[in-house]
Write a structure and sequence with these properties.
Oligomer: single chain
Strand order of the largest sheet: 1-2-3-4-5-6
CATH class of the largest domain: Alpha Beta
Order of helices and strands: EEEHEHHEHEEEEEHEHHHEE
Structural class: alpha/beta
Length: 273
């Protein structure tokens, strides 16, 4: 199965050099992720289709975040009749003016004479999917991994650290030879990267639990304690990350949440158990 990287041309603080989209297949081309609709992405995709001798037939979207899904409308206008497929996430799917055909984990997608296995990998987003090409042991990983940092878990917007860790363990079970992520270069040593992620999250759990036990009861206080030396953790991302860990630690029975009506939403106190 031919695979071609087509960059989405949307660099930024959260997207790095910009999103990766991947054209796969033969005469019936399939695009993995939709980008954001930048005209340069559409032109590069046209050139890749010409190189494949292909027509675009479908777009598989890993998840509903805007940098992966919002280009669907521009693609639909450029290539009428294309089928757009993703796992449903009703809260966000209606933001994009295309008709979504539902995908489910455990299903398969035909790509010419090949197939991609659809793998549900929630955590970064509840609808997150990865696509497994068994013959080459390649996983199209979306935002499950990013080689140049850690994956953002937006705890207040559908993210779940517990689900994310389970998805990483599930990814290890495939024993992939290569990961093709939504951002950054291909990962040629998947096990090393995933194990580094797992160690990092375990260390962050320990740091946040220590902060709670030391009397830091709010997310903001914990952010200031845990991230005080970090120059690469924007305030919003750090806050969401701490919240994601606290929710997991609550699920693990290590901390408890104390809602307080006097505080604004999201500013509950957190105490050790």
């Amino acid at each position: 199965m031919k695979m071609t990287l087509v960059r989405a041309h949307n660099p930024g603080p959260y997207t790095g050099e910009g999103n990766n989209t991947y054209l796969v297949g033969g005469p019936d081309g399939v695009l993995i992720d939709a980008g954001t609709g930048d005209s340069r992405h559409l032109d590069d995709l046209k050139a890749a289709l010409d190189d494949h001798g292909a027509r675009l037939t479908s777009v598989l979207v890993t998840h509903g975040h805007a940098d992966h899904a919002s280009g669907a409308q521009a693609l639909a206008m450029r290539w009428p009749g294309v089928v757009f497929r993703k796992m449903p996430w009703l809260e966000v799917d209606g933001r994009y003016a295309v008709v979504w055909s539902p995908l489910a984990g455990g299903s398969q997608v035909r790509v010419g004479e090949d197939t991609l296995d659809v793998v549900h990998t929630p955590g970064h987003a509840p609808d997150h999917l990865a696509f497994w090409h068994a013959r080459t042991r390649t996983m199209f990983a979306g935002d499950l991994v990013t080689p140049r940092g850690s994956v953002f878990i937006p705890a207040s917007r559908g993210g779940s650290l517990a689900d994310y860790l389970a998805s990483l363990h599930g990814l290890l079970a495939f024993e992939p030879a290569r990961l093709l992520p939504g951002h950054g270069p291909a990962v040629e040593d998947p096990r090393a990267l995933i194990e580094r992620y797992l160690r990092h999250r375990a260390q962050r759990d320990a740091e946040i639990l220590a902060a709670v036990r030391a009397g830091h009861a709010t997310v903001e206080s914990i952010v200031n304690t845990v991230y005080h030396e970090s120059v690469n953790a924007p305030g919003g991302a750090a806050r969401e990350s701490v919240l994601a860990h606290l929710v997991k630690l609550e699920r693990d029975g290590e901390v408890r949440r104390e809602p307080d009506a006097r505080r604004r939403s999201g500013d509950d106190a957190w105490r050790p158990r």
